[in-house]
Design brief:
The structure holds three protein chains of three kinds.
Chain A: H1 2-6, H2 13-59, H3 63-67, H4 81-88, H5 92-123, E1 124-125, H6 129-140, H7 144-158, H8 164-188, H9 192-200, H10 205-234, H11 237-242, H12 249-256, H13 262-283, H14 287-295
Helix pairs in contact in A: 2-13, 4-13, 5-8, 5-10, 6-8, 8-10, 8-14, 9-10, 10-13
Chain B: E1 2-3, H1 7-35, E2 36-45, E3 54-59, E4 63-75, E5 81-92, E6 98-104, E7 108-109, E8 118-121, E9 125-130, H2 133-140, H3 142-174, H4 180-188, H5 195-206, H6 211-218, H7 234-263, H8 266-274, H9 279-306, H10 311-317, H11 325-333, H12 341-376
Antiparallel strand pairs in B: 2-3, 2-9, 4-5, 4-8, 5-6, 7-8
Helix pairs in contact in B: 1-12, 2-12, 3-4, 3-7, 3-9, 5-7, 5-10, 7-9, 7-10, 9-12, 11-12
Chain C: H1 3-18, E1 29-33, H2 39-50, E2 56-60, H3 63-76, E3 81-87, H4 91-96, H5 104-111, H6 118-123, E4 135-140, E5 142-147, H7 165-179, E6 184-185, H8 192-205, H9 215-228, H10 243-248, E7 253-257, H11 258-267, E8 272-275, E9 284-286, E10 289-294, H12 302-312, H13 315-325, H14 341-355, E11 359-361, H15 372-388, H16 393-411
Parallel strand pairs in C: 1-2, 1-3, 6-7, 9-11
Antiparallel strand pairs in C: 3-10, 4-10, 5-7, 5-8
Helix pairs in contact in C: 2-13, 8-9, 8-15, 11-14, 15-16
The chains are: A mainly alpha, B alpha+beta, C alpha/beta.
């Protein structure tokens, strides 16, 4: 680029040729580097995708092919037998229902709690603001084991053990700190001037929030809700400790893992990762914004 | 930014209250579980009814003589009756004194309700007392030290590899190659994949009749499948868990690193380029130093999560031969196994203390390093 | 389900509709079971139980919550559960808290027309003389299974129905030498504790608990470590249910619970045979697993609960439970001839095992209560420390014996067969402390 800026200046033919050669060399170098980066990018993609391909391959093979050795790397013939066996197995539908219920309640609760808190952290200067952010970060990384064992005992005593709703309360506690931090970075990315302008034009702070800030923040909040959903959908330790007959899908699968056949196991792994394939696709653009604030 | 006295606190109160309820309260409960135990003593009664005055107390398993018995017809909730027995028993209490009094069927074992002359105390009222018994059980359990060393080993192997890989991914994405939004999606996929699923995926590759053996046998490299999951050489199992964890949990580090990279002013990097710094020099002298805060956050996060590694280990190894701390917690808690939430609570507390200590150590190390550089310049 | 059984089932269902045995729609008879809580089994068990009458509920629950539930019902005085079905090991807690009706009369009534295994009836009395806490319901055990491919390597002169552990080790070695692969499998991530408690210890020492750290026990562990384990598939450490490695051909000979081997026999009865566990110097140790039916005293309807138990003990229902759920009858009147091929193979092995002349039926100590899982951990630890970690045998036996004795003393659990009956807590003969 810098070569082109200087090209307007009068230059000798030899000089121009030298520059030309240099430019060509630079271009080749750049292309080589591009190619190198590309090779690395593709290799990393293969590293991520290969195991997913293999498990999908297993999920769509016949049970005979799943048990066969050596195994084929492509399903031949493609069969829905394993998947349909998994989906029809007892307890899969109810536990999937439980998982969805728990995840939705978790999303609703944690979003309701996190929106005001996130707004406060994004918009206000107050004593203890940094301390609260630190608390959020440390609480977020708290071992689930530490909470799940005593909570199981408390829930047993209160007679609310083994209920999806109780598990959702627990999941809300686990996801709330992340949700607050993520939502606060969403609000921080909405320019404060818009809100001020709305107030100048006669809105109350509450009206300004609901009519100006919230609509702008909504896509980010939706992305955060999806992230919360995925966290709850995948959580297994608290789920296996806090439920018995009303298991969530991952808890049900983990509990039956040693009892289940290989076709069942691989089909279950595939079915469980499909939501993440879809959800991550939708929120991929928001991922960095969501984490931007936490780094600071 | 706004200044207000009360509004931010009011907005934060619901969340803080909720977190306190679900973090602080269970913590105090965990403390109680970890450091107290229930003991039972049987209070003897002056009359064959629960409300009668006590005449003495006996420890569990005390052998007693049956002096007398009384059969009452207990009325049942549904209107019927059933024979209910009370026994006048005599035994020696903890102080060595002979005590005598009535006890119900619920608190003794008797061979024949109508004719036996002796019985044994099997139940009573529970009282709580402080004890280090559960801590002792954890410390003397032969799996304890191997659970710690495996957990730490996994941490030491996984975290550095994750950081190198995450930085490479981030630089690739940063270089804006064609299709970089697709690459971003692919690299982020494991973010939504649970450790359980990751464990099953990698188990499918490394099990005896899995994909790796299929490939090697088909290619004629080996004649018989090689058994990776074996107790004689646990380094194979460790390697599989390490691969699975690197595969699964690098995404989150990558996201944090990319966010950190985006925050680095473009001028810095361009300046480096103008002065002819090589890729490596720019990484070493510009990018990494500026990324330090992000890396620190990621490091603390990953360290704490490394102590919670659970389902991957179960899915790959079966869980008992190669054990980790969270697996031991579950083993002690599990009603079908030890059924002992107290020792489980001790384990949970241990995990928390160690992971917090390591996080504090990181923060202090980073800070003192900063101070060292400051004082040097 | 074959037609004959289906017809008799329909007949029974019709009878139940015509002559409702004191059932009413408002208050169904509730059968709570700690068994069949694996998903597919629960559905099959529910179908069998509900054929008794339209007003029957079949509920499955884990052991702990089921006990808590009965306890809570006794405290509130309001009971929903009418029949409790559980393994023998669950009943001591219920008996200790005096939560059950005495079923002596009901048992006598059932025995008038059915021959119930006496040993199990005695188990149901929990060491008392005059109180029947449960009526035996069904039984299971753990046996061996082998792929027919393996039979060609069986040591010469060995009778597969009367193997010794030495012959088993020879056989495993022969398969290893011929194929280059260790083709024997043990459920190390599964019921390995039952293998130690009910099979290895009794076969070598003649007892399960009292001879825990005897020289014979040390010999047994040395045999396991040096003669058998080298020819056991190393990936056994991750096996919980043996049907899958049997079906995939990863192992050819395996030891496991009959219900956990069942899928292999159901899917490929022509590929597998079942046979009794081998015998050691002291005899052929094996573990009968007994489940019983009790009536909580808070039941709303004793007569209906008793009728349901009679129904569960009828030859037709016992046959259905065997065929569909893999648990074996406790009464002698069940015709096993008409079973499907796989179930018949397993039934023959179970019968041969329990009828073997040198058989040593082995049962866990009674009265461990809430700490019932802890005794398993002691046997698992013993296996892991000696076989996997290679610790010194006597050191391991002595330190685990100490834990075992402490557990027995703290719970007051008493010995059961094959250990000599104990007054008070069971004592390890060679001084556990």
């Amino acid at each position: 680029m810098s070569a082109e800026t200087f090209s307007n200046a009068p230059v000798s033919v030899a000089q121009a040729q030298a520059w030309d050669a240099q430019r060509r060399r630079a271009r080749i170098q750049l292309r080589l580097r591009r190619a190198g980066v590309y090779v690395v990018a593709v290799a990393l993609a293969v590293w991520i995708l290969l195991p997913i391909w293999l498990i999908a391959n297993m999920a769509f093979s016949t049970p005979q092919d799943v048990r066969a050795f050596p195994k084929s790397f492509f399903p031949n013939p493609i069969s829905l037998e394993s998947i349909s066996f998994f989906l029809n197995a007892q307890g899969i539908i109810p536990s999937t229902g439980n998982s969805i219920f728990v995840a939705i309640v978790t999303v609703v609760l944690s979003t309701i709690l996190a929106v005001p808190a996130g707004y406060a952290i994004a918009r206000y200067v107050f004593r203890g603001r940094d301390a609260i952010r630190l608390v959020m970060l440390s609480v977020r990384a708290f071992p689930i084991v530490v909470l799940a064992v005593p909570l199981a005992v408390i829930f047993l005593q209160l007679g609310i053990f083994d209920q999806p709703f109780t598990l959702a309360l627990m999941h809300t506690a686990l996801t709330l700190p992340t949700t607050i931090l993520v939502i606060s970075s969403v609000f921080a990315s909405v320019p404060f001037e818009f809100e001020e302008a709305a107030q100048v034009f006669g809105c109350t702070p509450l009206q300004a929030f609901f009519q100006v800030v919230l609509p702008l923040a909504l896509p980010g909040i939706a992305a955060s809700a999806i992230l919360t959903f995925v966290l709850s959908w995948n959580e297994v330790f608290a789920a296996i400790l806090l439920t018995l007959s009303n298991r969530t899908l991952p808890a049900h699968i983990l509990y039956n893992l040693d009892k289940s056949s290989d076709p069942f196991k691989f089909a279950s792994a595939f079915v469980m990762l499909v939501p993440s394939l879809i959800f991550i696709f939708f929120i991929r653009r928001y991922l960095f914004n969501m984490w931007g604030q936490i780094n600071k | 930014m706004r200044r207000a006295k009360w509004t931010p606190y009011l907005l934060l109160v619901p969340s803080l209250f909720y977190l306190a309820l679900f973090f602080l309260y269970p913590m105090t409960q965990a403390f109680g579980l970890a450091f107290s135990r229930e003991t039972q003593t049987l209070s003897l009664r002056a009359e064959p009814v629960e409300s009668a005055a006590t005449t003495g107390a006996l420890e569990l398993q005390t052998e007693v003589v049956v002096l007398d018995r009384q059969q009452l017809d207990e009325t049942l909730p549904n209107g019927g009756t059933r024979p209910s027995f009370w026994y006048l028993i005599q035994g020696t209490d903890l102080a060595g004194e002979t005590v005598e009094g009535w006890a119900s069927q619920r608190s003794i074992f008797i061979e024949n309700r109508r004719t036996s002359e002796t019985a044994r105390v099997t139940g009573g009222e529970a009282t709580r007392e402080w004890t280090f018994e559960h801590v002792n059980r954890m410390l003397t359990d032969f799996r304890f030290s191997s659970a710690i060393s495996t957990t730490l080993l996994l941490m030491v192997l996984i975290i550095p590899a994750q950081f190198v890989l995450a930085i490479i991914m981030a630089l690739v994405l940063q270089s804006q190659v064609r299709g970089s939004s697709m690459f971003l999606y692919i690299y982020a996929i494991p973010l939504g994949i649970s450790d359980l699923v990751a464990g099953i995926l990698w188990f499918a590759i490394f099990t005896q009749r899995g994909f790796l053996n299929s490939l090697m046998v088909s290619a004629g490299l080996i004649d018989l499948p090689f058994i990776f999951i074996r107790a004689e050489n646990i380094s194979w199992m460790i390697s599989i868990i390490v691969l699975a964890e690197i595969w699964r949990a690098t995404s989150i580090v990558m996201i944090i690193v990319v966010s950190g990279l985006q925050a680095i002013p473009k001028d810095y990097l361009e300046a480096g380029e103008v002065f002819g710094a090589s890729m490596w020099q720019r990484l070493r002298h510009i990018i990494l130093p500026l990324l330090k805060p992000s890396l620190q956050v990621a490091l603390i996060l990953r360290t704490i999560l490394a102590f919670q590694v659970f389902a991957v280990v179960i899915a790959i190894t079966g869980g008992d031969i190669l054990t980790v701390l969270s697996n031991e917690t579950f083993r002690w808690y599990d009603p079908a196994r030890f059924n002992n939430p107290s020792v489980a609570a001790v384990y949970a507390g241990f995990i928390m203390i160690v992971s917090l200590a390591i996080s504090l150590f990181y923060m202090r190390a980073v800070r003192s390093q900063d101070e060292a550089t400051k004082s040097a310049t | 389900m074959n037609t004959k059984i289906r017809l008799s089932l329909m007949a029974l269902a019709a009878m139940a509709l015509v002559v409702p045995p004191a059932l009413s729609q408002e208050d169904p008879v509730t059968f709570i079971s700690t068994q069949f809580n694996v998903v597919e089994e629960a559905e099959r068990a529910r179908a069998i139980v509900q054929a008794f009458g339209s007003g029957v509920e079949f509920v499955v629950s884990e052991e702990g919550p089921a006990i808590d539930l009965l306890r809570a019902e006794a405290q509130s005085g309001q009971g929903v559960q009418d029949v409790m079905g559980a393994l023998h090991g669950t009943f001591p807690t219920l008996a200790g808290e005096d939560l059950l009706f005495d079923l002596t009369d009901l048992l006598a009534d059932i025995e008038a027309s059915a021959d119930i295994n006496d040993a199990y009836v005695e188990l149901g009395r929990m060491g008392t003389e005059d109180f029947q806490y449960y009526v035996p319901w069904m039984q299971a055990t753990l046996t061996m299974a082998a792929n027919n491919e393996a039979l060609q390597y069986l040591p010469e002169g060995a009778d597969i129905n009367a193997l010794t552990w030495d012959q088993m080790a020879e056989w495993a070695q022969a398969m290893f030498d011929a194929t280059g692969e260790a083709k024997m499998g043990l459920p190390v991530a599964g019921l390995i504790h039952r293998f130690m408690q009910g099979y290895m210890f009794p076969s070598f020492t003649g007892g399960m608990v009292t001879q825990f750290n005897s020289p014979e026990a040390a010999e047994m562990l040395a045999f396991l470590r040096d003669d058998l384990w080298p020819y056991v598939n190393p990936q056994s450490i991750s096996y919980a249910f043996m049907n899958e490695p049997l079906l995939s051909g990863e192992v050819w000979v395996a030891f496991d619970h009959v219900a956990r081997l069942k899928p292999a026999f159901d899917q490929a009865p022509e590929d597998f045979i079942a046979f009794p566990a081998p015998a050691g110097p002291a005899g052929r140790g094996f573990m009968p697993i007994v489940a019983g039916l009790g009536i909580p005293y808070t039941t709303g309807d004793v007569a209906a609960a008793e009728d349901l138990i009679r129904y569960m003990l009828s030859p037709e229902v016992q046959a259905q439970v065997l065929e569909q759920l893999g648990f074996y009858p406790v009464i002698g009147e069940v015709d096993v001839a008409s079973l499907p091929a796989g179930a018949a193979l397993q039934a023959a092995a179970v019968a041969a095992q329990s009828a073997s002349e040198d058989g040593i039926p082995s049962l866990l100590p009674v009265g461990l209560g809430a700490r019932g899982g802890e005794i398993n951990e002691i046997y698992i630890n013993t296996f892991t420390r000696v076989i996997i970690d290679g610790e010194d045998i006597q050191t391991v036996l002595d330190s685990e014996a100490e834990r075992l004795q402490a557990l027995l003393n703290e719970t007051g659990a008493s010995c059961w067969a094959p250990d000599p009956a104990s007054e008070g807590p069971c004592q390890i003969a060679t001084g556990g402390m």
